[in-house]
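agent> call fold_tool(seq_1)
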Amino acid sequence: MKWLVEIDGRTIEVDAAQLASSAEVEPGVYSILHEGKSYEVRVLKGPDGLTVQAFGRRVSAQVRDPRDYTKGVRHAVGSGRQNINALMPGKVIHVLVEAGQTVEIGQGLVVVEAMKMQNEMKAPRPGQVAEIRVKDGDTVGAGETLLVLE
């Protein structure tokens, strides 16, 4: 999954794999390893969003989660190939799309049953279904890729 992070007006794309080298050491304080060095970053929540403090500097920040489909946030998030992953272990009830199909933001892609509840995985952005890696009736694990969008 990818997030768009805006820091002082500059937008960057952050992949979940990039977060593997960071850890929250106490509420709002993160230790980040980068190229063999450890950095401390503080994240403060305020009425106007987030403030990030590092290296004696404070900057404003916004994080846009691709799973957030609330009004005002219905914009394309990220580009390129994007994996749509199962959020928890479950069973694929129904694949709602076909390979090569064009999808719009918020369109249903796959229905997964987990803990006796059916969850519809939705498109985080407009795109085309590049690969479908599951079929109806498959059992999936948490984090397993269900399909890939381009």
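agent> call fold_tool(seq_2)
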Amino acid sequence: MTAIETKHENSNSSAEKLFDFLSDMNNYEQLMPQDKIEKWNSEEDKCEFNIKGMARIGLQIVNTQRPNLIEIKSFGKVPFEFDLNIHLVPINDQSAELYMIFNGQINAFMKMMVEKPLKNFFNMLVDEGAALKL
């Protein structure tokens, strides 16, 4: 099991507003790097997309704890099984801390190749989420 924790970023949006946005997978396309993502398809609780030159990824929300946690699991024909937990920590009524923890079933060889790009990708998602004006 490979665990990757992103950086922690503060947002000028409340935990509740971030939770509402992030608990709808239709909104995730706004967070993704448009030059690296293609064939986007989403519903409220799941999305699928291709990472250009790599794999098709399916994400599905499996559990939420308002306003602090959104649990996401991989689905479909993904390169490896994983889960991604989005943590929202209220700072006050108008701001919150946002970070993610990824856990994947990655063998040692794959880990060497994917750990850094995955960490960079998830850190970028945290940056984009924290920058939202909600």
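agent> summarizing second result for user.
The chain has one domain: 2-131. The domain at 2-131 is CATH 3.30.530.20 (Alpha-D-Glucose-1,6-Bisphosphate; Chain A, domain 4).
agent> awaiting next instruction.
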